[in-house]
């Protein structure tokens, strides 16, 4: 083989390989979680993390929360939901932490609408639904671990 042709074909081969791999990777879907965009999504994520951290390793708290979920789901406002949790001794701290999560999210500029209309039935339904969803997700995640630990 002529050495001149070999030297020329080697860089071209690498360039061709690079272009093919680059083109193949360009169209691959993004892997990983998608950014949270709505107020409800963000509250659900915060509550999930808070609940999971608060009840991890405590089977009595987990069972208590599971038994309370139907009553919590009947709440029409965050205050009603918090009151149910506060009446239950072991979950009293959880109620305060969830309220803090919601207030933290409300202070962000992008949630101006929710902050202004926080006491409206629409926003309260949204908040209660997000809290319940976060609690359910946390319990589901803890089911996958050994004894909730």
Task: List the defining traits of the structure above.
flat, mainly alpha, 149 residues
Q: What report would you give on this structure?
A:
Helix 3 (59-73) packs antiparallel against helix 4 and helix 3 (59-73) packs antiparallel against helix 7. The radius of gyration is 25 Å and the shape is flat. It is mostly helical. It contains seven helices and no strands. The protein has one domain.
Could you tell me the radius of gyration in angstroms? 25 Å
Q: Structural class of the helix and strand makeup?
A: mainly alpha
SSE arrangement, N to C: HHHHHHH
What global shape is seen? Answer: flat
Overall number of domains: 1
The chain-level mean pLDDT equals 85
How far the N terminus sits from the C terminus, by CA atoms, comes to 66 Å
Question: Helical content, roughly?
Answer: over 70%
**Number of E strands:** 0
Query: In what range is the share of β-strand residues?
Result: under 5%
Most strands sheet: none
Report low-confidence residues grouped into runs of 5 or more: none
Number of helices: 7
Chain-wise SSE layout:
Layout: H1 3-26, H2 39-55, H3 59-73, H4 78-87, H5 92-106, H6 112-116, H7 121-143
Brief rundown of the structure:
With 149 residues, this protein is mostly helical.
């Amino acid at each position: 083989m002529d050495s001149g042709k070999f030297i020329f074909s080697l860089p071209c081969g690498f360039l061709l390989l690079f272009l093919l791999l680059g083109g193949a990777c360009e169209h691959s879907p993004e892997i990983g979680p998608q950014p949270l965009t709505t107020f409800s999504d963000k509250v659900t994520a915060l509550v999930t993390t808070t609940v999971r951290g608060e009840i991890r390793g405590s089977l009595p708290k987990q069972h208590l929360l599971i038994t309370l979920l139907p009553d919590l789901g009947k709440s029409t406002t965050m205050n009603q939901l918090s009151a149910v949790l506060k009446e239950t001794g072991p979950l009293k701290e959880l109620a305060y932490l969830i309220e803090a999560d919601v207030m933290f999210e409300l202070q962000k500029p992008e949630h101006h609408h929710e902050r202004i209309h926080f006491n409206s039935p629409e926003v309260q339904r949204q908040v209660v639904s997000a809290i319940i969803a976060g609690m359910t997700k946390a319990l589901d995640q803890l089911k996958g671990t050994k004894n909730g630990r």
